[in-house]
Amino acid sequence: MIDDEGEVRALVQPTQRGTWVQTERAGHEAWAALIAQAPRAGQLMHIIVQHMDKSGALIVSQSTLAKMMDTSIATTKRAISVLSKHNWIQTISVGGQRGGTLAYVVNSRIAWADKRENLQYARFNARVLISSEDQADLGSDKLKQLPTMSDGEIQLPAGPGMEPPAQESLEGVDLPDMPSIPHHGKNDL
User: Fold this and answer.
1) Paired residues of 135 in beta bridges
2) With left for phi above 0 and alpha for psi between -120 and 50, is residue 83 left, alpha or beta?
3) Burial (0-12, 13-18, 19+ Cβ within 10 Å), 160
4) According to the model, what pLDDT value does residue 78 have?
5) What pLDDT shows up at residue 122?
6) pLDDT for the residue numbered 1
7) Which residue has the higher pLDDT, 52 or 126?
8) Where are the domains of the chain?
9) What CA–CA distances, in Å, run from 185 to 4, 138, 145?
10) Fold designation for 24-133
């Protein structure tokens, strides 16, 4: 925003939320027992809860989970099996039976990241976590890049712009031009 003296002021934007999860004390007691009985399953549960989205879901390959746990894929599969068997998580197949990946949905009685009253709704989104090793080679051609803005920044009109793809102004009706900031150089603000 530009004030009367032409000075650029930063507009305050709300901060990003969603960095917390909630648990109940009974869930912590059960989690402690899980860690004592199956330490790798307890470790994996922490990793899944850490990365789940607001609906309690995460899509990630077993090889990425194994890397995050610093274990083999076989150990990771055993930990997933323990969590599924004892209703800590639900697994949903994404893609084919072979070569697909799984979505892991955390039991909402253990941990959740949204308002408690929203748990009654059956919606499914997921945060997707992919390691670089799981990616196919995308080639070396650079992708086109759009201008980006940092947190708290807003877009201001600048320069003459393009002609609008609309009809001409109506006769007898004068509309003011959109204000703009001339772009002189990187450090001219």
Assistant:
1) none
2) alpha
3) exposed
4) 96
5) 46
6) 44
7) 52
8) 24-133
9) 21, 35, 20
10) Arc Repressor Mutant, subunit A (1.10.10)
